[in-house]
Protein 1
Amino acid sequence: MQAAEEIQNTDLPGRQDSREGKYLTFTLAAEEYGIGILKVKEIIGLMPITPVPKTPQHMKGVINLRGKVIPVVDLRLRFGMEQAETTERTCIIVVEIVAEIQKIAMGIVVDSVSEVLNIKAADIEDTPSFGAKIDTGYMLGMAKSGQGVKILLDIDKVLMNTEFGGSSAEAF
């Protein structure tokens, strides 16, 4: 009987196993989020951001990072939250997203970076359904941590407007 249970447990959908791993956790408006550590290129302090005309409000502009121009998104505004005052903990996480067939470096402004966590598959649950009209496709799942929950993000989908907060093929 035990062997049958072990076989059934290995036949679970592969998605949960693929979500297990290390996540950089950060805060936005007192909520905890996580991004797969392999997407993170570096964490830098807030630096001057050059605004770009005619971009969505959440697009803060671009920065010059060691000779490379990197677009920067305010993740609070991207999620429809109020803009916050910057603090000494406000920083930019530089991530590498996959857009169509190319990789793009982008910066995301967050309130603060917390830590890197190794999250086990058993601690990750699917995103609950919030109703038919609410898209949760940009969430990989919910990680249980102590008494709280961390929202694990698919940063590619958050930063590319695939049915999230705007028209479907629009970048950022």
Protein 2
Amino acid sequence: MKKFISVLLIICFLINGLGSRIFLMAEDLPSYCDPFSDDYDERECNRYLLNSSMNSIQDLKKQIEDAESDFETAQALATKYRQEAESLDSEIAELNVQIKELEEKMVQLEASIKENEEKVDELNQRVLSRMESAQVSMHFDPYLDFVLSATGFDDMLRRVYGVEAITSKDKKDREDLKELIEKLQADREQLDKDKIEMDEKKEALTTKRAQSIIMRNYWLEIQEETEAQIEALQNALEDERQNYSGILANISDLSGLPSSQGMTAPVPGASISAGVWRYPASFGGGVHLGIDYAVGIGTTITSPMNGVVIRSSDSCPSYGYLGNGCPYNGTGVAAGGNQVTMIGTAMDSDGDSFVYGVSFFHLQSGSPTGTGVVMQGDYIGKVGSSGNSTGPHCHIELYYLGPGDMSDIEEDYLYRDYSMSFNCGWGAYGLGRLCENGVGAPCRLNPTYYFGQ
């Protein structure tokens, strides 16, 4: 008892955040945990301490799941941006090649333009020189002088046609060169536009690439922070599990509790509206992994054997509906409504003791018992219709965990990392874990063989 009192004086447990811890002094505990109070109740205090610790464990598990989910999301986002960055790198490289080709083409066109401009200047110079020479020697229009100096009419016609041919050729050359210059100039202007467009594209892609690099760095930062967060949560979870073990170690009456002589019906007098392993055809015939006790709301549910309540969830309204997923906070089986899960021991007719798991679903709001030791016939909760339910009933599932008595529970079974189905799964997978098919522990049992009608 002294050891128990000393434990009560200062208990360390987890609160919200990344494993922050505070000290809960004796004056912060309920009055029934104060050994000097008239309200002191060792069993109720044990339940309170275990429930607080178990809630912390469940909360930490949920935080770890959330952190791992966030980590997976960050990884997916990083992969997306990394792929985008690689794609942009490829586009940038291709555009750089295109820009280089355009620049080379521009250089060639500029050289061609310059060459043609020189030809135009040369031709113009020849025509002007010829006209100037004729004007100096004849002192009047060279073309007219050339025509009038003909020796006869036939000669004059030839000279007229010759002059026209020369002037036409000059004009044609000028027009061709002018057209070529205009075309080359237009090409040059187009290339300038193309270069501007390419530069704009390159700038935009470079910006996107920089953004991708930033996102990649952001992911690395998120990765480091998330990994550190997960590690901290896992360490905190291990600490809280040790705290839970420490609390159980101070429950002096656990190892001394005997196994029950068989099991009793948890809802005496109730009728079974649906059995295992399928719903009746009138209900749709789907998978049904437990039995439903149909009885009025508020009917008391009792423990079928001696044991320990390891999980208690009470966050749903008393009345749910078909398809309701409550509870949503990860403290219980989704859609199971308010619920209690326990581990207990019972002896068969030969006196051999075995360990079982039991889950009670759809309880009335405010009725589930807390975590801690329960004896056969002790209060578990009250019938409700919470979660995925269309009417008042208690759905109960039974699991076989292996041989052992209460001391084995304390030393082993309480500390196993069971899922909410005691690792027996749900749906079609749950049907693959039936003890009656020769599956070893953990496996599912037909409650009617143990509880009776």
Protein 3
Amino acid sequence: MNWFETAAHAAEAGAGGQSMGYGDLVLLGGFVLIFYFLLWRPQSKRRKEHVALMSAISKGDEVVTTSGLVGEITKVEDDFIKLKVAPDTEFRVQKSAVGATMPKGTLKSLDDK
């Protein structure tokens, strides 16, 4: 018995040239739509919001950084800001590290507690 001969016959039998059917195209299109709506679109929206936040921050704003520091902006530079976290303590932080802005007076309400 020759093992190679049977393998060759099996390969010839299954080598029919099948084209991609409509069902396969619909499935592929569904995957593309799922990828777009669940991954790409929400990430793009978050990125646009963060860029708008970075361009809108100014001196006197109260912000929270992504690391959890809370403070008031005392100086805005190109890529960095100076963040006042205590009466005599300022940190230089990258603008991209700002997670959110807070309403005015939030720091006072936090200090009163």
Protein 4
Amino acid sequence: MKLLIAIIHRDDSPAVLDELATRQMPFTRLSTTGGFLRTGNDTLLLGIEEERIPEALEILGRFCSIRKQFVDVGQAPFLGSLLHAPVEVTVGGATVFVVDVEQFHKI
């Protein structure tokens, strides 16, 4: 048994959640916020058998697209006023951790 922790962009969640449900891969969804861009993410927790990890990674790879977007990264003081400088950054994709599960109980 493995615990798969996947942090995905909130825009990618509906398709990922639908596909996981279709493939009967139970999950818990937590609403989270990224620390750098402060945008909405979803963190998915999946307790799955080791042989299903490639299937889960395939789903995440198919539906979690990497894209460019402009974001306001902060305020810079300039002559007594504040300027907001939008910067193009890469967002999306998935960050995935696979952790060994020592024990699993369904009570």
